[in-house]
Amino acid sequence: MSKDREFLWRRLHSLLGVIPVGLFLMFHLSMNFTAVGGEQAYNNAIGKMDLIPHNLLLVIEWVVIYIPLLFHAFYGVFIAFTASPNTGRFSTYRNWMFSLQRFTGVFLVIFIAWHIFQTRIQKALGSEVEYNMIADIVSNPFMLGFYIVGIISATFHLSNGLWAFLVSWGITQSPQSQKVATYVTNIIFVILSVVGVAAILAFV
């Protein structure tokens, strides 16, 4: 019974990592990418979120973002520290992806918590989340580097997690379909990374 429960928890963890957490990441990156068009373009895009009634926005944030993210993060850390990667014995591409998935997952817990503190919590304390806030944050070279590493970690974690999701949910069962999925998810990783890094550099 415990193995059945663990199987279901892992399935749920995988699902939430793609829907809704993964979808939110893509939405978040696309919103940030508007900064490439300048300060006014970014502020206009972010300002549209203020059109949503505050109480409704809170419900959406907790149901769609925070609760799924918290479960995915904490259960992911549990998996990371209890999993047994085979990179020492079998240095295959997929085993290395397995280890990188766990490493980026633990790092992202720290990065996302800090990012929420610098933005969402500061907004709750009265600050305005707009172009100049992000520009001030990344004006520090250390923070800029931290954010770039965080963005690339997030895009890798999502794209590689999507590959694992397709396998664990039985969508890609044959070696050939898994190989195709590897190419597709790698392309997704590159595209999202370019969008994310270009977005953060637009604030510099």
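(the above was protein one; protein two follows)
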Amino acid sequence: MRPPRAVVRDGGTWTLQTVLQRHGLGPVAGVDEAGRGASAGPLVVAAAVLRPADAKALDGLTDSKLLTPAARDHWYDRIRARALDHAVVVIPAADVDRRGVHVANIEGMRRAVAALSAVRPGYVLTDGFPVRGFGRPALAVPKGDRVAACIAAASVLAKVTRDRIMTALDAEHDRYGFAVHKGYSTPDHEAALRAHGPCPEHRFSFANVAAVAGREVPAGLVHNGALPEQEPDPGDPEDTVGAWEPLEIVTGGAGR
């Protein structure tokens, strides 16, 4: 027999979570990343599980890119206080170079969901493209950080965490302006890169960095999240989940 059909009516950014919860598929985790297109600094992936009754308390939460820095800080604190669970995975630039940003992103998403310890999600919502390997059902949501509150929460956690890392790196590598452009390839960043050459926090597998460093971009690395998902090869010991140890995982736990 087919499962009962779910009728989804537009109820704002909590619609998907509410429908899934009502059909016994919760708790629902949202997953998103920050820094995929940056040419310096880490890739940061976050997962968040919000309380079903918090729609009113978190009214106004949206895609981190649409929020001011002050608003992102506000929502970051509020999400950490109220979420049922959250986790953040920090993937250093060197590991992005080794794996390719798309594979690094997919693995980071899986690890962020696996790091949720206070609750076990029954369903996962991802932003934009499908991801397999969560060990539970998942759905890709177009413009998910503007459509689903749990994905928006993950986007805020990832963005604020990464921005703070880049601001700290600015103190160590003050010639590049990381605190301003956060490692993205702005004209000022490109000018500094050409003037001073790359630092260890740059992604040498990115074409602009490789060109300045006089290196060739390694073949086979994927640096476009819009490309089809590239699954790890289970026959290659360098391409398994367990082989990727350098990931730093910052777990959250239950909120208040």
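Reviewer note on protein two: The chain is about 35% helix and 15% strand.
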